Amino acid sequence: MEAILNHLNEPLQLTAAQIGFYQKFNFIKIKEVLNAETIHYFNEVISRKVNELRKAEQPLEERDTYGKAFLQLFNLWQEDEAIRLLVFSKRLASLAAQLMQVDGVRLYHDQALFKEAGGGITPWHADQHYWPLSTDKAITAWIPLQATPLDMGPLEFSAGSQQIKTGRELSISDESEQQIRETLRVTDFEHIVEPFDLGEISFHSGWVFHRAGANQSSYMRKVMTIIYMDKGMRLKAPANSGQENDWKTWCPGAEIGAVIETPLNPVLI
């Protein structure tokens, strides 16, 4: 365990080219961020906690598109001390700060996204539709807990699409898949969908459009995500019901216009 803890807090310095790529396209995939021992350990720990906390689900064929996309559990750092070590990793938080070019980051929240064998697509969307945050200095680390080939449904990015404002008002749904796909079809933003090697992690901004394919494999696609924000992030007045819910759930007690410094949003680096 000591070796894993040391690894989680060992600095990883990005190159100027990597930072420039993220600044231009608002996503990046980085290989060998976490070693195999660390990934295997957290696969076991997070899977056990997800199985413990998950509720009985409807059969896949009876769910709507959102329900078919993934099993979703939030803020597991509060449920398990081992998972807290991953979520509070200085190695990962430092990468987020480097990519966003900020002095430090605080936690917005974490979530496990487990896509069942036979699970459906995750429709095109932009995460920040749900976030009552005053700037775009927020980023998600997408951490597969296994190697993720194309048939398991890895993330697909529309590189640079953070420039597009059409579709930002859409929640994850059949409508967002159709409308955003049509918008992206008439632009020249390149779509990037690639397998993830073991230990490879992606980071993406709140406004870049992304989706994931169906899980056509026979195995659960297990992913842990951590959402970071600039440590000076302020709460903005919610613009929709999703942002209202996020305020009450992930930033309880924060005041509009003030820095989001609640017990659920600690500074990580």
How would you describe this protein?
One of its GO terms (molecular function) is iron ion binding. Keywords: Dioxygenase, Oxidoreductase. This is Phytanoyl-CoA dioxygenase. It holds the Pfam family PhyH. Its cofactor is Fe(2+). It contains 8 helices and 10 strands. The model has no long low-confidence stretch (mean pLDDT 95). It is an alpha+beta fold and 269 residues long. The protein has a single domain (2-250), classed as q2cbj1_9rhob like domain (Jelly Rolls, Sandwich), CATH 2.60.120.620. The chain has a 6-stranded antiparallel sheet. 30% of the residues lie in helices and 20% in strands. It has helices spanning 2-8, 16-25, 36-53, 65-69, 81-87, 90-100, 174-185, 241-250; strands spanning 27-30, 71-74, 105-115, 122-125, 138-144, 155-158, 191-193, 201-205, 210-212, 221-230.
Question: Biggest sheet, strands in spatial order?
Answer: 1-8-5-10-3-2
- Total count of strands: 10
By CATH, the superfamily comes out as q2cbj1_9rhob like domain
Uncertain segments of ≥5 residues (pLDDT<50)? none
